[in-house]
Amino acid sequence: MTHVRKAVFPIAGMGTRFLPATKSVPKEMLPLVDKPLIQYALDEAREAGIEEFIFVTAAGKGALEDYFDTARALEQQLRDNGKTSALEALEQTNLPEGSLSFVRQKHPRGLGHAVSLAHRLVGNEPFAVLLPDDVISAPKGALSQMVDAHAQTGGHMVATMRVAPDQTGSYGVIDPEASVGRIIKARGMVEKPCPEEAPSTQAVVGRYILEPSIFDRLAHINPGVGGELQLTDAICADVGTTPVAGYQFDGERFDCGSVQGFVQATAAFALARTDLELELSEFLSGRIKSHPLAA
Ligand code: G1P
Hints:
Blueprint: E1 6-10, E2 31-32, E3 35-36, H1 37-47, E4 52-57, H2 62-67, H3 72-80, H4 84-91, E5 100-104, H5 111-116, H6 119-122, E6 127-130, E7 134-137, H7 142-153, E8 156-162, E9 172-180, E10 183-191, E11 202-210, H8 213-220, H9 231-237, E12 244-248, E13 252-255, H10 259-271, H11 277-289
Parallel strand pairs: 1-4, 1-6, 4-5, 8-12
Antiparallel strand pairs: 2-3, 6-11, 7-13, 8-11, 9-10, 10-12
Helix pairs in contact: 8-9
Bound molecules: 1-O-phosphono-alpha-D-glucopyranose (G1P).
C-alpha cells in the first residue's frame, strides 16, 4: 500500500459567515485561542506523516502565503530580545522549503472542483484532503487514525461521525453496507440529503484519503447540490470500482465554519490549556450562574 505523502487543503471559500472579520483576513487565519485555524489542520497533517502540502486558494488569501514564509526580521528581533517562547511559537509555522504549493481556484465551483485543481501536483498516488473548517480534537490525530486504517483497506476513505437525523442536510452522508470496528464499508454517498432521504446518519467530516482515480471521476461528474461539483458525487461514482469506506474517528469535531462552532471550539481549546483553564472556568461558571437561562 502506498504511503500517503501529500495533502490538499481547499481554502478558497470566502468565509462570508465571519464578515466583517473576513473582509480583509482569510477565514483560515482567524485564531482559535492563539493559533490560526489553518495551523490545526497543518499540525494534524504533519502528525499523520504528510510531507507535501497543497493549498487551493483564491483571491484575497495572500496572508496565508505570508504565514508560511519565514519572518526573518521578526525572528532576529525575538532572538535579540531573548524571547524564546515566542520564537518557539513561530517555529510551528515553519515547513521545509519546497514542501508547499499554492493553486488558485478562480471561480467558486465547489469542493470537487477545488480538489480537481490539485491533480497535477498530487500526480498518481493516494492523497489526503483536509477541510480546515472542521477542527478535530483527538488524543491521536483523526488523519493519523485514518492513515493507519487506510493501510489495511486502501480505496477512498472519508471521516464520519453520527449526527442527529435533522442535521443530514448539512453534510455528505454515507450509505453503509457493513461495518467492522470503526470502518464502515459504503455502497454509496449522498450530498446534503433531507432527513427523509438520508441513507443513514453517518455524516462526512472534512478528512479524506482518496485514490488518484478520483481525478478522472471529478473530470466527468455533473454539478450536484447547489450547482457545484461535489466531491461526494465523485467518490460515489467510484463505488464498485474502488472500495469506499467511512472511518468513525475517535475525537470531537467542531464546525468552525459557523460562528457558533467557532466559539465553542475556542472555549473547548482554551479550557484544555493548563495556562488558561483555571481563570477561564471560574469566569465562565460565574457568567453561567448569573445568566437568565441558568436554572
Ligand atoms: C463539505 C462536504 C460535505 C461534508 C462537509 C464536512 O460541505 O461537501 O460532504 O459533510 O464538508 O464539513 P460544506 O460544509 O463545505 O458545505
